[in-house]
Fold these 3 entries.
Entry 1:
Amino acid sequence: MRVVSGIQPTGNLHLGNYLGAIRNWVRMQDEMGDGEQCLFFLADLHAISMPHDPAELRKGTLEMAAALVACGIDPAKSVLFNQAQVPQHAELQWLLGGTARMGWLNRMTQWKDKAGKNREGQSVALFTYPVLQAADVLLYQATHVPVGEDQKQHLELARDIAQKFNNDFASEEAPVFTLPDPIVPPQAARIMSLRDGLAKMSKSDPSEMSRINLADDADTIMKKVKKAKTDPEALPGEEAGLAGRPEALNLVTIYAALTEGSVETVLKDFGGEGFGKFKPALGEVMVESLRPISERFTALLEDREALDAILARGASQAREIAVPTLEKTYESLGLVRG
Ligand code: TYM
């Protein structure tokens, strides 16, 4: 079993990232058996597919590394690194570029959402982004990739690329790439914005009120929860009563995920209550769950050298694991290497 996943180091780590992905990374790391391995990385190469400020990216990369460690990623157990220190990611992306099809990339919903009506004006990197993402996991022969719902389509593309490459350039007995399985949590796979229950919670939402950042202080969290969009009705006693009430469903889902319960158990406790009672309870749960993370985060940020060292060591371990697959890929394609 080899677990691989990544996160873009743009903006703050938010509750959607945490509940949809990072919490699963930590669980998988902690349950790892002998001979198994977890690799987690900051997708800084992906971040340049959108307009960006270099100084912000540099700062964001270190901050995201600190945030992941604060959430429980242990660099002594997992390989933690940033893509830019492992050039094999970019190399493999190019090699897979001969296999990925334009039509496949054209169907990616993230591309369609981000490009909108202005496809011609987008960077080439935004279009080929999913090929780099495929390289990220295929490079390490990943078997499991813990992600939120929104990344599932990219993982399916990675499988398609791996399959076509194996068919075209390898034998059935000795495939070059392992087909990775996405691991999406049964609950909290898609945490929604606090301002709009139909839009996902996202780093790129211009409104800070739409998301809870892991580094938010208690007052900020309480304020954001209090202002969260809801409807005037009380909470129902059963899940069916949340149909057509996306904001209410989202808040109940967050409560359930943070308390390790289910939507049903939360409604058992709060059914019949209005948001005047539920919101402060939810705010408390958030503050208590995030407090240890944000304390560790603040402390880690103070030691810049330690963060640099963690990433340098992780990158060196990652390069070592990456090289054999990369060499095999060059060879399968008939590219001559000295
Ligand atoms: P990114 O940086 O947008 O998000 C990181 C992880 O958080 C999950 N996530 C969510 N889960 C639930 N609810 C939400 N509102 C929410 N928002 C984000 C994402 O699904 C993701 O798991 N392309 C990726 C980064 C990446 C990657 C990879 C992931 C690059 N290479 C290889 C896996 C494997 C991205 O932009 O995630």
Entry 2:
Amino acid sequence: MRVEVMRGILGSNKAAADANRKFWDDNRILALDFMGSPGSGKTSVFEGTIAELTKRGRTLKVIEGDVASDNDARRIEQAGAEAFQINTGGACHLHAAMVSRAMEQLDLDGVQIILIENVGNLVCPTAFLLGAHFRILVASVPEGDDKPEKYPVAFREADGIILNKIDLLPHLPFDAGRFWDLCDQLNAEAPQFAISCTTGEGIDTLCDFIERHLAELAG
Ligand code: MG
Ligand code: ZN
């Protein structure tokens, strides 16, 4: 019974995700879904990415998913991009239909890139596709170098892996070699980004990746 219910929910979510993807493809908009634990620095990565991509002449908007509050949307607006805040009211992941409704609220004229911040969680966002072209996993140094071992599905299914807060490496017992080895074992294809939002290191490489795929979508 429970299994059937889950199958039904995931099935209707998949249909909404497919519709989102079609809308983005038809409008040549590149969409990226970022997942990571609470406090991994997803919003900070967005702030740095918005600053860099805006400098490069790109137009982007943001969909923020949180259980409660519009704190992150306000930070994004402060960083210079329009943001639509979704409050899930308790749900620990975004559904594709929530993203469709958010898209209807945003003025998408001239928009090239949509960044989606999923609810802080490394479990169910992996099952609930939103239709984004890329799902980027954000892990961070204070969380420990064994994160890939503990959440293998999230790492295996990611289309890109960010290790954030690398400026803290000298201060914490985090073995970056071990972390990336575990990532290679689970998912050798996913591009790897080492980032510090404090120093700005690595943000340009992430933006290069985004621009490269934007060009492919437009081509
Ligand atoms: Mg956030
Ligand atoms: Zn959930």
Entry 3:
Amino acid sequence: MSNLQQITVLGATGSVGLSTLDVIARHPERYQVFALTGFSRLTELLALCVRHKPQFAVVPTTEIARTLQADLQAIGLDTRVLAGEGGLCEVSAHPQVDTVLAAIVGAAGLRPTLAAVEAGKKVLLANKEALVMSGALFMQAVRHSGSVLLPIDSEHNAIFQCLPGHYANGLAGVGVRRILLTASGGPFRETPLSDLAGVSPEQACAHPNWSMGRKISVDSASMMNKGLELIEACWLFDARPEQIEVVIHPQSVIHSMVDYVDGSVLAQLGNPDMRTPIAHALAWPERIDSGVAPLDLFTVARLDFHAPDELRFPCLRLARQAAETGDSAPAMLNAVNEVAVAAFLDRRIRYPEIASMIDEVLNREPVVSMDELDVVFAVDAKARTLAEQWLGRNGR
Ligand code: NAD
Ligand code: MG
């Protein structure tokens, strides 16, 4: 048996997954890839298997699994290929695994991430949607299993770094006044409001500072990403929505801040590169090289801050409302947003209709309490049906 940390990367073919594999490959003396999962881009998954030689790979269907298995065998690799959600949960909870990197996008990540939590793994969380959907049950499972949950969403990782180690008993107890959650404002921060109806998916995905998957890129443009992050922060740090203020900071150099009652404000700074929070969480409480260039403050030169404009970013208001309502409201918001973003990317709706759709569907549904996972999935399914019906009436 080796002392190498065995790591499962859920969503290995995505933007966060690839950044994680980049950091892991820099430290072969510490980390070994146990399993890689991918939903599409299977040629890339095959190449990743060749590079990292995992024990397992997971793909969406048994048919694809057979093809990949044959391809792997043909080149002499003994990686076993599993299929579907069962396969994802198996490689998340496998007894040989130490750490699970949860970087599947959207609600699809919930069950495998929870499987890792329930098995008591160290879980590095990128998949914010999982926490937004089922925060109470998720955090309950973390406490129950003793799993170590570390945020790699850059803002939450920054907040974690700016908090003292013993914040778990409440923010007030460690003198925190509020959390300042920074946002870049995305590609449409200064676009005339009247032009927003005409923006394309390509424009929405062209983020000024970060290179990310398409769904989170659209969420960043609409600032739904910040809304989801507000909800994520409430669960991770046991905060109330009103303790979290969103600050637009276009340079994306400060990744978030914590404001203390004595007037101190602690910030974490760095180049906008996910390898920093990933390396931080992988090695925590130690520090390792991430491959990220040192921050050059003379090039950055200035840091700007603005309050977000609710007229420009209605999704942020909708998310804050859902956070305040609680119960099933965040899961509904998340599900309708996923359908809306996919419809926008497919050019079935215009960009401003993402917010209209969420507003109309969300405000028509009563909230229910979410004390079982079945309820979470029922709420998610219901919201998707309502969103599809909305699309049937209003989409192209
Ligand atoms: P991405 O689209 O680049 O990658 C998503 C990954 O999930 C891919 O490996 C894909 O194959 C897999 N996947 C997609 N649908 C799936 C399904 N139905 N079942 C199983 N696997 C599926 O996305 P990303 O930008 O890497 O983001 C991943 C997660 O991390 C998201 O929740 C996002 O909000 C979060 N996040 C991303 C960044 C970033 O910089 N990209 C930063 C912070 C948080
Ligand atoms: Mg983020």
